């Protein structure tokens, strides 16, 4: 008799052979492992991720988008995987913009114990770091089911003391949306970020999110550059200010606009009534040759002042990077690629 462990809901059960599904959360056998093989350290999680993401991501110590990394080398001229668009310049710009920011330590003053707790849209968090709105993980070597990927991120976020965003991609539909399915299983504890679909489709998705009890909703405006959505019969559109105003008024939930990199456009979104401006270039995965997020973040904060919540993502790999983004003007920081690796490696 062997003991098995579900990496989604942490259920343990005895069985001679590996179960096909978890009786509690219904995760399939890709998320069930022998209790003796459950990773006990971050290094072990990364080792498992490397095996499952072979040919896509090698979980390098330095995730910088250079051509010596398999994600960028293999992505050029092929489906993007975890690499950056084109030659990966935007991916590298994110990394380099943060790398070029230096920290200095203040050593004089009254002693205090740091308190990382914060409030994000009225939600109490233990620290200002949230999993970003990634999607499509099931396409990475079929390493895990998409809904279980979303569920793992949402459950893990709550257990860690934060809240997870979930994304949108070409095989998500209003009738079968893994992000919303996972949020329903998690009693609405999550924030869906939708692609900039037609206004009518977005309203259907937003209404579903409201009925589930989600804490906020949003759209990643830079998703209008996603060619795969259109190729798969799921068109996306550039939005104007009236479109944003219409969606903000349509929902009772706080509204997030993600993918903002220009100060004037950040101001227009703020004027349209959004609750959060998310400074992001989609992890360098939509348009090549953009500035790094850490370059544009302080300009956007200067433009908007202190009266609106601003988040940032792009190139964040360590707590030092989080600290830099906060110092540059972010109220909270989103993580993307690291969350995918963690979910693939250990649920």
Please supply descriptive tags for the structure shown above.
alpha/beta, 14% strand, TIM Barrel, eight-stranded parallel beta sheet, 13 strands, 2 domains
Can you walk through the features of this model?
By secondary structure, the chain is of the alpha/beta class. The chain has two domains: 1-38, Rubrerythrin, domain 2; 118-346, Alpha-Beta Barrel (TIM Barrel), CATH 3.20.20.70. It is built from twelve helices and 13 strands. It has helices spanning 42-52, 70-75, 89-99, 146-160, 178-185, 199-212, 227-231, 241-250, 263-271, 293-304, 319-328, 337-346, and strands at residues 2-6, 12-15, 32-34, 118-120, 123-125, 129-131, 165-166, 191-194, 217-220, 255-260, 276-279, 309-312, 332-335. The strands form three sheets. Strands 6-13-12-11-10-9-8-7 form an eight-stranded parallel β-sheet. Strands 2-1-3 form a three-stranded antiparallel β-sheet, with no helix packed on it. It has a two-stranded antiparallel sheet with strand order 4-5. Helix 9 links the parallel strand 10 and strand 11. Helix 9 packs across helix 10 (293-304). The two termini are 24 Å apart.
């Amino acid at each position: 008799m062997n003991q098995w462990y579900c990496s989604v809901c942490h259920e343990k059960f005895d069985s001679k052979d590996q179960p096909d599904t978890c009786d509690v959360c219904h995760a399939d056998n890709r998320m069930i492992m022998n209790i003796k093989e459950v990773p006990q350290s971050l290094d072990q999680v990364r080792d498992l991720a490397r095996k499952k993401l072979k040919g896509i991501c090698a979980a390098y110590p330095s995730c910088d988008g250079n051509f010596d990394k398999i994600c960028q080398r293999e992505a050029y001229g092929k489906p993007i995987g975890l690499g950056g668009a084109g030659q990966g310049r935007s991916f590298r710009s994110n990394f380099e913009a943060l790398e070029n920011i230096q920290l200095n330590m203040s050593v004089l003053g009254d002693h205090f114990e740091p308190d990382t707790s914060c409030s994000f849209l009225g939600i109490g968090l233990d620290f200002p770091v949230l999993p970003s709105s990634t999607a499509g993980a099931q396409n990475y070597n079929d390493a895990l089911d998409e809904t279980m990927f979303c569920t793992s991120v949402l459950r893990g976020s709550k257990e860690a003391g934060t809240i997870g965003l979930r994304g949108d991609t070409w095989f998500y539909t209003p009738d079968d949306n893994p992000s919303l399915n996972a949020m329903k299983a998690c009693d609405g504890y999550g924030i869906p970020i939708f692609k900039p679909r037609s206004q009518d489709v977005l309203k259907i998705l937003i209404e579903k999110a409201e009925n589930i009890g989600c804490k906020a909703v949003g759209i990643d405006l830079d998703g209008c550059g996603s060619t795969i959505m259109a190729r798969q019969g799921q068109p996306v559109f550039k939005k104007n200010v009236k479109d944003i105003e219409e969606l903000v008024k349509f929902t009772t939930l706080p509204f997030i606009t993600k993918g903002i990199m220009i100060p004037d456009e950040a101001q227009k979104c703020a004027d349209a009534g959004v609750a959060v401006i998310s400074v992001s270039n989609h992890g360098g995965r939509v348009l090549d040759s953009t500035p790094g997020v850490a370059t544009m973040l302080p300009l956007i904060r200067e433009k908007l002042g202190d009266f609106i919540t601003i988040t940032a993502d792009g190139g964040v790999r360590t707590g030092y990077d989080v600290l830099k983004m906060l110092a540059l003007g972010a109220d909270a920081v989103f993580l993307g690629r690291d969350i995918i690796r963690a979910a693939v490696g250990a649920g």
